[in-house]
Amino acid sequence: MANKPVKRLADYKAPAFLISALDLTFELHDTQTRVTAVSTLTKNGTDPLLRLDGEQLELVSVELDGKAVTPRFEEGQLVIEVAKDSATLKIVTQIDPTANTALEGLYRSGGAFCTQCEAEGFRRITYFLDRPDVLAVYTTKVIADKAQYPQLLSNGNLVESGELEGGRHFATWHDPHPKPCYLFALVAGDFDLLEDSFTTASGRDVLLQIFVDKGRRVQARHAMEALKFSMKWDEDTYGLEYDLDRFMIVAVDFFNMGAMENKGLNIFNAKYVLADDDTATDQDFDNIAAIIAHEYFHNWTGNRVTCRDWFQLSLKEGLTVFRDQQFSSDWAGSSATRIKEAQVIRTLQFAEDAGPMSHPIRPLEVAEMNNFYTVTVYNKGAEVIRMLNGLLGKAGFRAGMDLYFKRHDGQAVTCDDFVDAMADANDVDLSRFKGWYRQSGTPVLTVREIWENGHYGLKLSQLTPPTSDQAEKGPLPLPFAIELLGHGKDVLQLQDAEQTFALGQFDEKPILAPLCGFSAPVKLVFEQSDDELAALMEKASDGFVRVDAAERLLQRLVAAWLQGQEHPALELWLRSLHGIATRPLTDAFLDAELFKVPSVNAMQGWFEQIDLDGLVAARQRLRSQVRERLFAVLHDRYQMVKDVKEKGARALTNSLLTLLAEPLEQGVFDRYQQARNMTERQGALAAAVAGDLANSDALLADFAERFEDNPQVMDKWLMLQGQRSGALKRMGKVMEHSAFNWNNPNRTRALIGTFIATNPECHTEAGYQWLSEVLPKLDAINPQATARMVGPLLQWRRFDQKRRQGLEALLKGLQTPHTSADLGELLGKALKG
Ligand code: TRP
Ligand code: ZN
To answer: Does Hydrolase show up as a keyword for this record (predicted)?
Structure first.
């Protein structure tokens, strides 16, 4: 295996050199691109040895102050001795963008050149100090064939462009804002362009440009609206204005992640730009707005103030996810928005923390940085910022943000610097709160009620179990938001391992709605009665509490079923659903969540050991109970909402259709055929697949025919192929379909990633056998994308003995001399001990 050495946060050292300016020239050719990099260097101490990172580069020449030097290589770095305090270094390298299937550095996507430099991709473009605390002013000259690549883009402002001999042309860009190299970007291609403009609060006009594949300009309109809304929102909410003359977004289909915040030139996965009613679901529209906002917000939280080192990634990502979540609740917010955020934490993040990849939101050790773009750093990081926001209040949080920018604009800083700004602006002590940055794992919050002589109170205690990376844990300060049904709301600040709170006098013991709005990323242990849970499910004013109460009931029920026993929770759950389905409709988004039977993945989070067959059977049984007992009322509600042209109604219709797929077989078929938009069509198709209806083959075939020209839509088809029962025996055929492409991570993630993450057939002998062939092939093409798919397999110790053996053999078999550093790090952790 190509193991990378582990780096530690504790070993941070300032760079030996600073680079104040970098002049780049790209002579673009499909397979032989030449990069000339001229750096203005100054010593940052006394060490005369300049050590530059570089990977997959062909070195052409090195000149120091105009004189050729012969550098040496040490541990993969280029080492140059620099005698003077400052110098000019010129390095020429050659690279092959067409052969680059890893999609890091400079590569070609659908006939266009583009770059991806975060986290450590710039070292695949030239030898450089590839670390975020080296900030330079970039000037970039791009040269390419004019007919094939009429548009030449890079960061900042366009300063010059013109014709060259041999049908070539050039453009020179200058970015006045010093930036780390991970924010560098270059794009060259032939795109359709959607333009607009935005006038900032201080009256500057900004040109807005979105570049998309030919023929798809109108599908960028929604993204453009979201961009303008984001720019206005950041001014209104945080007083933050855009700082260049133009803001560009390019949509590409070959991309490892969602999108990238390169200064002034964001590059997006096309699926987070392109949308119209016929091809995108309501959820797709919301995701696009959230990601557009996220990347735009990085201009301040990430770019103007950046990270000192990659251990601080949550400094920009946790904060920016929190900001995009705030934005989303203003933009298209519904009661389901927060519920879905909590679901990400409770299904994905809690699992990550319970497995071999457990790490604090600020990791202490990293080998391959790509592996740390995790739900922990991003989403748990956002929960930590949310707790700060709640603790300090809106005005206090804003004061902290203002101070953070005042102190650190133009700098590369740490998470401590951020929390210190929050503390100083509010004159509070946040030293204990910083524990959230150091400690991994999920606190278990145990709630005990005290009810004596008409006095009601709560005894709260917290305990974080040890994780794979960290044995010792301590208590963390956390807000516990509650409602006493009929008596109002409160937030209890738990500071210690255990604390008692008196909540007043009552005639009857009140019903407690715990953890309103998912106020802290914890697991709740609370022996509340089944009747109280049913009451919460129907009546709590907080949407998260209602969905969580339903889950807690189902958890009890499924636990009993797994032991071969019955449980009264079944009747209570059905009765509450009946109540919800027959009452006047007040919140369709929320009901859409309540009418979903939890996924097998969500159920896995309820138990330490995974009885996969038991959970699959339990889920089927829940679905059939609902159908048998509630068909009439659910069908009435379905009839009531199915033709309403409104987002919430569509969400509820899709949930009901999924629940009732089997008895409504013809209804599913009609719904699909008569769909007025993709939300309806995809919802009906998904219902057919979920119910494994006889007509699902025909519908999938029809869908592929209608949308074969649209890769983003075909990803929905690939996902359903990955999810459906009988997926494994059809894989060969699906992979031969023109919609599939081994080299495109959107395609492989949709089919193979979905299969691994959601399909129980993955956990069969044949499934493991198939993966032992597919994963090495994928890893050789694109290590980063492959490593992002295997997460569920790393949980192998939680499965039954037979699956444990199968998974262990699979993971061991993946460790070969050819395994990438990305996958190798994960396998090493999973198999350790
Ligand atoms: N910084 C990007 C974001 O907004 C994440 C990202 C995009 C990324 N592409 C990447 C991270 C490639 C690592 C590698 O969240
Ligand atoms: Zn981000």
So the answer is: yes
